[in-house]
Amino acid sequence: MMPTSTSASSSERIVIVGGGAGGLELAAKLGRVHGRERVTLVDSRPFHIWKPSLHEAAAGTLDIHQEGLSYLMLAHMNGFSFAQGRLVSVDRERRLITVDAVADPQGQEVLPRRELGYDTLVLALGSTSNFFNTPGAAEHAVTLDSTENAEQFRLTMLKAMVLVDQAKVRDPSARLDLVIVGGGATGVELAVELVEASHVVSAYGLPNFRAERDLAITLVEGAPRILSALPEKISQAATARLTELGIRVETSCRVAEVGADAVLTADGRQFPARLCMWAAGIQGPALLADLGLPLNKLGQLEVNERLETSDPHVLALGDCCAVPWRDGRSVPARAQAAHQQADYLVKKLAARLRGTPEPVEPYVYHDHGSLVSLGQDAGVGSLMGKLAGRGLFVSGTLARLMYMSLHLMHHKAVLGFSRTASLALARLLMRRTRPRVKLH
Ligand SMILES: Cc1cc2nc3c(=O)[nH]c(=O)nc-3n(C[C@H](O)[C@H](O)[C@H](O)COP(=O)(O)OP(=O)(O)OC[C@H]3O[C@@H](n4cnc5c(N)ncnc54)[C@H](O)[C@@H]3O)c2cc1C
Predict the structure, then answer these.
(1) Structural domain boundaries enclosing 169
(2) Ligand 1 center to 233 CA (angstroms)
(3) DSSP conformation class of 51
(4) Best substitution site from 125, 129, 153, 307 to test ligand 1's pocket, by max atoms within 8 Å of Cβ?
(5) What is the tens place of the pLDDT at every residue in 243-298?
(6) Span from the CA of 114 to the centroid of ligand 1 (angstroms)
């Protein structure tokens, strides 16, 4: 995958901010053809983890230190430049962005605050959790917005399990209460992953903790069913699986407040919660409000169907923007949408880099269906078929394998086929020498 130099007749510089599901694929595909002088990726972190796997990182079934792909390595392989640092401001008049200084864990500055010039800026910043102004949520709930959040949750959960294990010697009724707010794919996948992981952890060395008895997970959803954006059959299958695993599912239940040790609902109920995970919706990153560009009510950048903001030099993709879709709705915030938008922008930006006319076709979102992981060996979902536009229901191991293949396809987009195959094989072999759940 060596980058080839471009036969450019323009001096266009593309800066992509956010190396996630969409931004990284865009940088890799452009970098391979147009090279590091023309394509720069900026991310606040030094390594990349595909966001849809964060529930596995939170449960410890995926080790972030093993899984993370260094941006410098990816930049070297794919021929783009990488600048580490958090985007703090955009000067649209002078076409400059400011990237924050980077410090080591002891607070010592490693990289200074810098300015980078651009001709086209692509914002691919992803999203953050939306607490919908729920009192106490920001203070007491954890989110899965970032790798750091997932790792913090994993360590807190491990500690809580050890404490319950010890407390059981004195008090046999001691247990770990966990509430997950939001019955979308994130909440459902996390709940199942946590149950499976806690069985493994207790087997490794918590003599008094029995996951099926001492871990109480409640999944709270405001809509009448979980996975409400997906076909009803999927909700039913997922509910059956959650119930089978002992997870309590509360639907049509609105959270009114999150306290230090309980979640209170609008209808006056109270669920004990030593830990609360908030997975109930997203919004655009706060920084977007400072750009002077139109935002929707969730704080996402409003773009047209060519992914353009009202500034012709600023484009956007993925969760941080709202792309018009159908019935007045926006394209859903999903990795498959970010992936498709990156592919669309590859063609548009390649034309800018070559100095040739841009394609006139708008971006059209193709919903290929949805797959939800229900643990290491099970999944459920629907694949959108061409036949009468109807979804094909899939479940069990097949659905789980298809779900895993989505992650591999993302790897293939940034690493190429042979490296992805080597990585998959290496991980399979490493399973023999490591516990199934990260224990330290
Ligand atoms: C647990 C979980 C499970 C999911 N499962 C699925 C699924 O099964 N299928 C599906 O389609 N979608 C799923 N999603 C949604 C999916 O992850 C997102 O829609 C997708 O990652 C959005 O891609 P993106 O490129 O817009 O942003 P992201 O992938 O979130 O990437 C954003 C990048 O921007 C960087 N960044 C943010 N702010 C700054 C800044 N100020 N300066 C510099 N860099 C910055 C971040 O470090 C990050 O690398 C899931 C999400 C979660 C949390």
Answers:
(1) 137-278
(2) 27
(3) G
(4) 125
(5) 999 999 999 999 999 999 999 999 999 999 999 999 999 999 999 999 999 999 99
(6) 24
